[in-house]
Amino acid sequence: MTQFLITKSNWKIKMISVRCLLISNLILLNIVLGQFSNFVSLNTYNDDNLFRTPDSIKGQDVLSTFTLGLSYQDSESKIQLHNTTNLMTYQNNSIRNFLINNVGLNKSISFNKNSTSNINLGGNWSLRVNQDDYNYYNYSQLSGYANFQLLTDIILIKGGYSYRWRNYPNWTDLSNYLHNAHIQLNKSFSTRTTIIAEAGFGNKSFMGQDSFTTIGSTGHGHGRWASNTATAITNTVSEQLNTSQVNIVLRLTQSIHEKAGIYLQYRKQISIDDSTNYRNFDDYYQDDELFDDPFTYESDSYSSQLTLMLPKATKLLIGGTFSSKNYISELAYSTADDSVGIGGLRLDDQTNYFIDLSKTFNINKDWVNSIKLNLYYSNTINETNSYWYNYKNTSLGGGIQWSF
Predict the structure, then answer these.
(1) Nearest CA to 309 among 355, 265, 359, 264?
(2) Cα separation of 85 and 231, whole Å?
(3) Are 78 and 85 in contact (CB under 8 A)?
(4) DSSP 8-state symbol, 279
(5) N or C: which end of the chain has fewer CB within 10 A?
(6) Quick one: how many helices (H) and strands (E) in the chain?
(7) By the 8 A CB rule, do 347 and 327 touch?
(8) Which of 399, 397, 305 is nearest to 360 (CA)?
(9) Do residues 99 and 110 touch, judged by C-beta distance below 8 A?
């Protein structure tokens, strides 16, 4: 696999050059071909605890995300091709800057010309590139999915299956395979109420190291005075480690006005396994799978969101989530000096709430279709019996997106 080496000194120069080149090519393709759907966005937010560290050592930083998206749909086959490039930069920790690129395709197949029932097929390939000091978090990822939607006279049925393979070339123990399947039932009523019930199954497997010791004996001589010597042989083998879980979701949505709606949701996550060898990291690398992998815990989660469509294409979202998590095998380290996990199994209660205000300007010119502005605020409180995951963080930011 090709290795990407980017030094600290030329990182910013290279990223500026990449951005200019991508934007120039994007505009050129849009003018010449006229069949592409493109967007460029820039989001910046201040976070008082960007790395989710304990309160006593938390640090502030500013994270900026530059995103470039390009999609094209073939008029005959109806296959859509898309590519999205994300550059994430830290103001005070530029050594952690990284780039993620995602390229894929998808196709929707309707059961008949006027039907809302369809099948969606798609696949993606992603690549994350960090700087040298953090290149062990580089990964390549291949995924595919097949979803369906079936509208009957009684109920709307949705379901699907997805597969993902993620490879960490510099940290092979983290490489994994992920399978997910789900089925969902939607029932709407004349009161503008919708009830959604969903059940899902997930399985994650990754290569790990396991060791076993064989105790044996060897005999010397024959008869009454023969001697036996015990021997212990330890072997290390690579084996496929698996963990599975079941998810159940119940959601109630209600339209309270033609421009206002609310939902309430309960989600339960149940582990099929008694234990897992996977452990979460105590440092946050803008990757929840490493910092707080859902396959490492069981949970009960309650969430709600209010959506308000305000005048002049302005939208306001207000929401929050409370989750109670019971970690399957992860020990709680009560203090910074605890190395044995005297707190027992880790238990977390996490509260998160957010406000997102956005406004879209529909311009419909040759060089731009719309411009979207948004401001957002979020607050997270994670209370736990494990020192390294007892944190709070507040973020405030905004962004702009140009659609071509």
Answers:
(1) 359
(2) 57
(3) no
(4) -
(5) N
(6) 2, 16
(7) yes
(8) 399
(9) no
Cβ neighbours, 10 Å, residue 115: 11
Q: Please report where in the chains the tokens 């290279």 appear, as a residue.
A: 14
In the structure encoding, which two tokens stand for residue 260, read together? 């206002």
Residue 288 is encoded by which pair of tokens?
Answer: 């929840």
Which pair of structure tokens corresponds to residue 207? 């290569």
Place of tokens 């979207």: 372
**Could you tell me which residues come within 8 angstroms of residue 319 by beta carbon, excluding any fewer than 6 positions away?**
303, 304, 305, 306, 353, 354
Q: Tokens in use for 235? A: 């072997």
What is the maximum span of the chain, computed from C-alpha positions, in angstroms? 101
Spatial separation of the C-alpha atoms in residues 378 and 356, rounded to whole Å = 9
Rg for the chain, CA atoms, rounded: 26
The three-state secondary structure class of 209 is strand
Q: Is the pLDDT of residue 88 over 50?
A: yes
C-alpha span between 298 and 270 (Å, rounded): 5
Q: Tokens standing for 208?
A: 């790990």
Q: Which two structure tokens, joined as six digits, stand for 234? A: 């330890």
Side chain identity at residue 249, one-letter code: V
The sign of the dihedral angle between the CA atoms of 85, 282, 349, 274 is positive
- Enter the tokens of residue 126: 């992603």
Q: What is the mean pLDDT of the chain?
A: 84
pLDDT tens-digit readout, 258-286: 899 999 999 999 999 876 667 788 778 88
Output the pTM of the full model.
Answer: 0.82
Tokens of 75: 């008029």
Q: What percent of the chain has pLDDT over 90?
A: 64
* Distance in angstroms (rounded) separating the CA atoms of residues 314 and 316: 7
Length of the chain: 404
CA distance 267 to 379: 21
Sequence-ordered list of residues with C-beta below 8 angstroms from that of 290, at least 6 positions apart, any chain: 137, 174, 280, 281
* DSSP output for 64-87: EEEEEEEEEE-TTT-EEEEEEEEE
Per-residue pLDDT averaged across 133-146, rounded? 94
Cβ atoms 90, 97 nearer than 8 A:
yes
Q: How far apart are CA 237 and CA 240, in angstroms?
A: 10
Distance from C-alpha of 280 to C-alpha of 402, rounded to nearest angstrom: 37
